[in-house]
Specification:
single chain, 316 residues, alpha+beta, Aminopeptidase, 2 domains, 7-stranded mixed beta sheet, 4-stranded antiparallel beta sheet
Length: 316
């Protein structure tokens, strides 16, 4: 379906040539688009453009897990920042509204928006304008800022963490054990998504949803996952090293409420980092909310570098 509005053409892409057109606007995810299409993480009918003639003025695309029937996240939304005039956000709004109506099973409940941005984006006027223009587009369709996150990376040029002596680590016995610990760890969480889930469901339900919707879907070995315990076997926390199809990651780590304040987070993160480092990976990625200062500090102490940020916006 192609929609024309005041000489503005708003179609989804259909072929390789149009994927090249779609990729003309710069963004970090561009190199992944073709592979995502091949793997079933994207569909061409979920990738829309706004054009005047041959000029690409805006684009939008959704992502899902391989073979997913519906989009899970809006992770590409761009406008041509070199286009003259103050109507750049207007074009983005028209494109997004049109695409949402055509793509989403329920346009009144769009999936979350995610945008990768530079770490110090507020300090540069041009970069700040780019980010705020896209946020304006989303706000005009009813979205609001949900959370800003730190994107973190460990490099093999950093020392591999040495196991500490305070804790013992063992593999996760089964899904039930991990889900139970995840539910306990939600007590007092500083994670915005976790806090939001607790307004709508019990800790057990939230932990089960997170496990089934994300952790259980990783194809990397589950024997990487670790439970941290005291010498007497009492659980202290856990870490889930994994590969998400793009990068090796620290998918989840936590210290249980009764054990917080003892610095155990450093030991737990070190174990997860060491497990992935032993695989000879080129990098390890992680993320945490900007407001989760204790977690951010733990990553900093473990030699993780803040190489970017992520903006999440939601409609409600």
């Amino acid at each position: 379906m192609t929609v024309k509005q005041n000489a503005l053409t708003l179609p989804p892409i259909t072929g390789r040539e149009e994927l090249d057109l779609f990729s003309q606007l710069p963004y970090a995810l561009n190199p992944e688009l073709a592979d995502d299409l091949a793997a079933g993480r994207r569909r061409r009918e979920w990738m829309w453009v706004a054009q005047r003639g041959d000029r690409l003025l805006a684009r939008a695309a959704w992502w899902s897990r391989p073979g997913g029937d519906a989009p899970l996240i809006l992770d590409v939304l761009d406008i041509d920042d070199s286009a003259p005039g103050p109507d750049r956000p207007d074009i983005g709004v028209r494109l997004l509204r049109t695409a949402m109506a055509a793509v989403l099973p329920d346009p009144s409940r769009p999936p979350e928006y995610s945008r990768f941005i530079p770490p110090e984006w507020r300090d540069n006027a041009a970069t700040r304008q780019v980010v705020e223009d896209r946020m304006t587009v989303l706000e005009r369709t009813g979205a609001r800022l949900f959370v800003e996150r730190l994107r973190l990376e460990w490099s093999p040029t950093s020392p591999v963490p040495v196991p500490g002596k305070r804790l013992l680590f063992r593999p996760v016995r089964d899904a039930g054990e991990l889900v139970a610990l995840m539910a306990l760890a939600l007590d007092g969480t500083l994670d915005a998504h976790g806090r939001d889930e607790l307004t709508r469901m019990s800790p057990q339900e939230a932990a089960t949803q997170h496990y089934e919707g994300e952790l259980a879907r990783y194809t990397s070995p589950r024997d990487w996952w670790r439970i941290a315990t005291l010498p007497d076997g009492e659980p202290v926390g856990f870490v889930v090293p994994a590969h998400n199809g793009y990068n090796p990651i620290i998918a989840y780590l936590a210290v249980l409420p009764a054990q917080r304040g003892n610095g155990y987070i450093d030991d737990v993160l070190a174990e997860g980092t060491r497990i992935l480092a032993e695989q000879g990976v080129p990098r390890i990625r992680a993320a945490t909310d900007l407001g989760n200062v204790p977690m951010a500090n733990a990553f900093r102490r473990a030699q993780y570098v803040n190489f970017g940020r992520e903006i999440n916006m939601i409609w409600n």
